[in-house]
Structures are given as structure tokens and as C-alpha cells.
Amino acid sequence: MQRLAPFLLLFALFVGAASAHAQEYNPETAYSTFRKVCGVCHATDFSMPPRSKDQWTQTIQKMQGLGAKGSPDEFALIIEYLMRREGSVKGGGRGVQAGSADKHLVDFAAAERGRKVWAAECINCHGTQARGGPQGANLVRSEMVLHDRYGSEIIPYLKKGHPLQSGHPISSLTGENLSDVVHFIHEQVYDTLRGSPIFHQQDLLTGDAKAGAAFFNGAGGCTACHSVTGDLAKIGAKYDVPALELRIVSPRNARGPNRPRVTITVTAAGAPPVTGYPAAFDDFTVALRDAQGVYHSWARTPDVKVVKNDPFAAHDALLDKYTDKDMHDLLAYLVTLK
Amino acid sequence: MTTRRFAFILALAAPLFGQVGLDPAKLLEQPTDTWPTYHGDYSGRRFSTLKQINSSNVRTMTLAWMYHASGNPGSIKATPLEINGILYFAAPDHVWAVDARNGREIWTFKWTSKGGTHIGNRGVAVFHDWLYVETPDCHLVSLNIKDGSQRWAVPICDLDQFYYGSLAPTVVHDVLITGVSGDDLDRPGYVSGYNLETGAMKWRFYTVPQKKGDPGSETWPNEEMMKHGGGMTWQPPTYDPALNLLYITTGNPQPVIAHKNREGANLFTACVVALNPDTGKMQWYFQASPHDTHDWDATQVPVLFDADWEGQPRKMLALAARNGYFFVLDRATGKNLLSTPYVKVNWAKGVDKNGSPIPDPAKMPQLDGSLVSPNQGGATNWPPPTFSPQTGLFYVNASRAYSVYYVFDPDANPMGWGGIDEGGATLETMIEAIDYRTGKIRWVHPWQTGSRAGLMSTAGNLLFAGDGSNNVIALDATTGAILWHAGLGSSVSNGPISYELDGEQYVVVGAGETLWAFVMRSK
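^ Those are the sequences you sent over. The predicted structure of the assembly is below.
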């Protein structure tokens, strides 16, 4: 039983999670939410590349920064929808939204095998990333490669007698070897495109932690709201370095149940003030949901006073003040809080 | 006079018998009963001379009709054309003809796509009885405007090289002018002129030099980089018939963010370029962002107007660029008259003797990040601004935002994007009314949430706009005071137009997948 219990627990968790998911995820609701929120700017009947949950989350956060509007639940549903949809459309291969619908889809396992052939027979002339060099063409920019589908252009070309770095004839490579190399080459093209899954931040820890502490405690004014022993205790252990930098410069984009949120307080003539999360706020109307979830709305007239309570206002103000050095120093300091 | 020009004039003079098509003479008029091009006329001003709807009565404008576009096309970013009582507009792979009086669908055209980026379509061109539209999968398609039947389709770019089509074509004389989109991989941008009848290419102008010794090649390190240097042409051009100059704006250089292998100004990326529309030959250029590293292509609308400059009448071109600068040029010569930021920017160290901003190397993308304003979305973007000759003001939907630009690809010879901007925040979004003579902001209307709505000004002292809260709004063009609004369920997603039919003035805007028409009823 002692050995069985963890399995039962896992099983229960799995079933529980699966059934909860099945109840929560309705493809029609997900699609209509996707269309409602994303369709404001994007056509919604085309295929997109497979991406991880983290990558889609980053994309969604970026879109929110550009003005995408929806509730946290809606954005969570859209991320789920995009992950499911891409899994089915691309079959796990690597590709991109741009380009032909019948583009070469990369088989990861074949590309990995191809990488070994590449290292043995191609890399000296065409380079690690197939970008070419004095001895070999840039294959990422090669029109033959871009027009190729599963070796349709590349393999006949190679078979005409393309030299190999081992000195062996091209016929020494099997059909599978050639096909694998073709997958590897296409992978290099896709890894060059915008949104490539291999792209990520480099070393961001170039700042001076001491100067960062001084900025935190002084010119930055951070201590007005934050404490390194309170809300920011162990912040350096909570996020990876790139995420922490983005939390510093754009905390407004953060998600999660306990995040600070903008509220508005509306005071109509002769009525007590009402505070809540904004549901609409423009030149004509203001609407909010109060702490009990009750919806209120008002026409914007001189008699209706609106105050925006923005917990991120101080962060926004810093954007006009930060030097890049301040930003790097602050990151170097907060990373030490572990 | 060339034979071609003579033929064009003959075409203008030809009487029209029972045609549903566009009388080409309309292309040279200010838009009234017709909105015959993407911008309403060749100038890009988006100024309607109609004033039946004006700042004293706009509050009584009423809904005429709404049309929900069939086929789940995504947001309508196209500016519709209005010709003989029919609206023609597009979305990626879709074209519609809709009755401008009642919003009834007359025909639809659906293109079977072979792929391409489906981010948007700005609209169509019409000449006589033929409509022209670009598709995301790199085709130029000609339709019969009577029923939407396809006449021909010709390839204008290579989908495998990650190009795609998105802009509204433009007809000048007997040439159909198109541009191309697509900066996913390092390819050259170009503008092409096509035969209106057959779709055969007449000329092509590459926006980056294709070999050493070509104009601009001195601003690139080598032939390999210039040939692949980007400069896409995804904004419809404007045109001056008197000077016979076509004004195109060009996109960002490639590789975009990781830029260290393309030292130099990288001409003719991020430029305004004046071309002869009959031959595609360049007359002059002005670079808005030398050595752009922030994806701030200069593909905003080059707006043409004639007005006083320091007491003398002058033919001018004004551009509110994505990089945050407002430029005024002499459009006959390309001489810079004014360069000044219209939002606060932190990436330039002033302007050079030609009026081009000088990029600050410290604010180019960095491995450890650089905090830059504007962000990649820009101080403005593709949505059209407007210029009112009545107020002398240039109106633009502007945004002030920061983001952190990172280089992801540390290679000495990066390709493609090699980086991106992340995070940051939008601090302000607003309409700015800019005095073209000084670049000073005459008035600002701030939004709680901004949108990518286009603008239109009218002789009725009105400015039509949209906020980020689904409202279409009419403002007093002189003061910026809000005079009228209506909630549309989605934010305005294209440039508004106006036309007169049966003695009544209409205003039409797209919001999401719906066109909305408003009218001033005469009885």
C-alpha cells in the first residue's frame, strides 16, 4: 500500500485535472473568445507556429501592452486555445505563421540526426548555423532552400556531386542522411525568423548591485512602496533574470491572483464614493465592478468625479527617469535577494 | 508628351456610357460624391470638402445602416472606396461590394489562399470597371466590379521568401502600383508598376541597392547586406499629378534588431522616396530613420499639401513617422524644412544637416537591454493621419510608450530579427493637432485607452476619430472639443470616409468586422 498510495494519488490528480479541464475548456467558447479579443486586430482563420505556454503567455502580455483588451480569464482561455490549436495544426513540427501554407515542417528528431551529419560533412564551409562563409553559401538566404520541400530541390542538387568535408563522395550518404540534413537546414531558416523559439535574452546581469541598492533606497524612490524584507523578500529566487527585469520595468503586465490592479473611485453629486475595478472608462462613460461584484455605470458629466487609483503610476513615472544603467543596476541588486 | 500620357488624357476625356466603373477624372478631383482611392484622393490628406455635416449640426447625424462582413475575415483595416453608390473594400483573402445607400451586400469574392501573413489588408484600387487587390499569398488579383468575377491573378512576390501582400494598390496614368510586405527574413523591398489590362510588370524599383555602385550602396558594408537589406513597401503611396511624382515610404532595414553587420545609414530603408510613376526612377529621397534598429519603418502616410512656408507658397509633404518625429519636406526637391519630435523620444541625438535624426548608439538594442521610447509599435503606425487645409493642422493618433530592446543573437553576422522589444508601458495615447509650420502641438485630446483608428477631417470643421473604447467620435477640428460619438461594439479599425449620395452626406467607418454608415438626413 505504501508503494501504491503515490500512484493512486497521481491517478486521482490526473483524473481530477483531466475532468476539471474537460469541464472548463469548451472549444466553441475558446474560439469565440479568441475571435472577440484577438480578432480586433488579427485575422483568425490562419495557422500559426507551435509555441510553449510560456511563449504564448509572453505574446499575450505583449499584445496587452499594445492594447489587447480582455479579462484575465479570457486571456488564460486564449492561451489554452492557441496551444491546442497549434498542436493540431502543425503536428509538432516547427514552422511559422509567415510563408507558404505548404512550407516544409521540421521533424525535430530528423533535424537532430541531421545536425550530426552537418557537423561531419557540411559545417566547415556552411557554418554552424548554415549562414555560410568564405567557402560556402549562406543557406538561410538561399532561394533554393526556401523553395525546397522535404529535399525536392536540395537533394537532387547535392546528388550532382556536391563535395563533402570528409572527402567522401556524396553517394556515401544514405537517403535518410540527406533527408535529415534537409530538416536541419530548414530548422536553421526557421530559427532565424521573427519569433524564433531559440531566441532569448543573453546575459542581463551587467549592472552594479551596490549602485542598484543605492538607487533602490535613494533616487528610485522604491522604498516608498516596497521593502526588501517585506514584499520583495527573496524576489531574486522567485523569477528568472529576464522575467525579473520585465517585472521591474513593466509590472503592469504581470498576471496572477494577488497582483495589484488599477481601481477607480467614482463620486456622483450627493452620493457616496464607489470604488472598484474599471469595466469601461472613456470620455463618455465610466463603469466599474465593486468589491461585491456589482456593476455600476455613470455618464461622465461635470458632477461625476472620477479618480484613478493606479498602483503602477510610480513605475510609469520611472520610465522617463531610468537610465539603462539604473535599470541594469537595479536588476543586479534585486537578483541578490534570494 | 509621351504617348502614355496622351492615352491617359484621352481616357480622362472619354464619355462614360452606362458604366458602373470609375471615371478616371475622379482621381484628380477632391472627393465629394466619390471616394475613389485609399486616401480619397492622391494627396493622402483624407480631407473631405463636404460640409453638410459640420461642427454645428453633427449631433443630429444618425445611423444609416451597418454591414457585418461575411466570412469571418477579421478586423476591417481597409479604407473602402465609394464609386457610383457602391462601396468596395477588402480584408485578407476577401473583397466585398456593398450598396453605399443601404449596406446591402452586392457580391463577395473569396481568394483560396496558399498562405502568407494574414495581418491585414488596406483595401483595393479601381479603374474603370476593374478592381485590383493584393493577397497575403503574394498575388495581385483583378476583378470585374460588376459581379466580383476574377479577370486574372498574377504573382507579385515570392511566398517562400516570406513576402506577403497587404496594401491597397494605386493607379497612376496607365500603371497599377503595388508594394510588398514581409520582414521575417532578410529580403529586399520593392515597388512595382503593372499593366492595368494584363497584369504584366512594367517596372520595379528596389528600395535597397542590388549591387555595388548603385545609388545608396555607399551606405552599406557590402553587396550581400544591401541585397538582403529589407525596406518593405507596405503603405499605399501618394502622388502629385502636377510634378508627376509618386511618394513611397519604406520599411525597416534587415537584419532588424541585431544590426551590427549592416553599418551605415542603410539607404533607402526607412525613407520617403519620390519616384516617376511611369518609369519607377527615383527623383529624390529623405531618410526618416538612418540605420534604424527599432523596426521603425517610415511606412506612414506621406501627406501632400500646398500652403505658405515662411510667407511663400510651397508644395510640401508632411510625415508623422513611427520613430516619433514630424517632418516637413519640399516635395518637389525633397529638401527638409522641419524635423521635430511630436512625442518625447529618447533615441536620437538631434538631427543632421539633412534633417534626419541622428541615432544614439547607446539606445540601439543591447544584449542586456536598452529602454527606448517609442516602443516598436511606434509613436504612430499605419493608421492614416489627416491634414485640413482649413485649419492648417496635421492630425495624428499618437502614442508615447517605452519598451526594452534586446539583442538575442550575439553572432557577428546576425540574420533575420535577432532580437525584439519586450515589456515597458504605454504612458499616453492621444490625438495631436500639429501646426505644420512649427511642429508645435496646437491641441491634444488624450484617450484613456488609445486605438489604431485612422482619421479624417472635413470642410465642416470636423475631425473623425475613434478611441480604444469602441467609440467613433467627431471632434471640432479647430479646438479638439468632442461634438458627437457612438459606441460600435469594437474599436474603429480603419480610416473613416465621407461621400455624398442623393444630396445627403454619409460618414462610413469600419469597426472590427462591421462597417457603420452615418448620415445627415435632408428630410
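The mean pLDDT of chain B is 95. The CA atoms of residues 2 and 8 of chain B lie 10 Å apart.

Shout if you want it in another format.
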